[in-house]
Fold this sequence. Notes:
The chain is α+β, with helices and mostly antiparallel strands. Among the domains are: about 1-60, no CATH class; about 70-165, Immunoglobulins (Immunoglobulin-like), CATH 2.60.40.10.
Amino acid sequence: xxxIGYYMQVNLTDGSDHRGCCTQWGVPRRCLDWCRGxxxxxxxxxxxxxxxxxxxxFHEGKERIPGPPRNVRIQLEKxxxxxxxxxxxxxxxxxxxxxxxxxxxxxxxxxxxxxxxxTWLNLVGLKENLPYELVVKAGNRDGTSTLTxxxxxxxxxxxxxxxxxxxxxxxIGVAVGVVVALILIVCAVVCGVxxxxxxxxxxxxxxxxxxxxxxPFRGNSQAC
Length: 224
């Protein structure tokens, strides 16, 4: 059952939200997160009883439900409103009937939302100097996509002073992390070799038995 659960969590993630179909099949709330590719706490129960309907819903909606919008971004308009823009989904872009945008102040439960058939939406009435976060999803009569990664921004003095979002490709972040780790390791090795050679040079006795051991060099050696 653990193996089945792992397979469900890893492979049944297509960017679409199949919870509507799963609900019609009688999948209980505690297992519904699997229907949008997220982990569940009751792995054994969900895998034992509801694997078949969940997989059926994924196959049923595979060609009909869109994936999430891509490249969500914002720009400032002349009237101090904010324009949210995004690109069409990579999965089933032709099936999109509308997009839904959610936004709220960070840390506040109350969320505003609006629908549009376009790939952009103007947001008005935002407060300055406070951080907002927003997400977007695509949908049609058969279901919706999963939400995009939250985009965070702050409007201040008629400028957007900060924007951030998670990478759409987590492998890029992992690759960058590996490269940085390798660079740090190389730097540590080079520094270690340098310090070792420097200590050896300092320890060499000069002619007459005197040691090259004045304070400035000793201080540098300890710093390494």
